[in-house]
């Protein structure tokens, strides 16, 4: 998913997102897709660096906590980096891990 963002492929990024995704403030899958597209349209470059991940696996589900530094050029994402703390929920769907929950806070 990180590679898809950096290569500006919103559709490929969304392949990793479950149909019932939920995020901050009730964000659903459609709203996440629009948010990703907006960032890619508004920024000529998007970079994402992930910090060390803390992974807890419980059967076919996992919780992953990590920090993320986003960089870009354009109107919405500033040239300087933005740092977020992320908690994400993943689920194995027919052998593919899909993101079904994410919460992020700007540090």
TrEMBL record:
<protein>
    <recommendedName>
        <fullName>SnoaL-like domain-containing protein</fullName>
    </recommendedName>
</protein>
<dbReference type="InterPro" id="IPR037401">
    <property type="entry name" value="SnoaL-like"/>
</dbReference>
<dbReference type="Pfam" id="PF13577">
    <property type="entry name" value="SnoaL_4"/>
</dbReference>
<feature type="domain" description="SnoaL-like">
    <location>
        <begin position="7"/>
        <end position="99"/>
    </location>
</feature>
<dbReference type="InterPro" id="IPR032710">
    <property type="entry name" value="NTF2-like_dom_sf"/>
</dbReference>
């Amino acid at each position: 998913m990180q590679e898809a963002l950096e290569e500006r492929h919103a559709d490929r990024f969304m392949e990793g997102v479950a149909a019932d995704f939920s995020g901050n403030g009730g964000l659903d899958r459609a709203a996440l897709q629009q948010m990703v597209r907006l960032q890619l349209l508004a920024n000529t470059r998007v970079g994402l660096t992930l910090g060390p991940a803390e992974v807890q696996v419980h059967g076919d589900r996992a919780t992953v906590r990590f920090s993320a530094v986003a960089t870009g050029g354009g109107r919405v994402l500033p040239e300087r980096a933005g740092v977020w703390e992320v908690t994400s929920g993943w689920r194995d769907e027919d052998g593919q891990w899909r993101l079904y929950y994410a919460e992020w806070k700007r540090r």
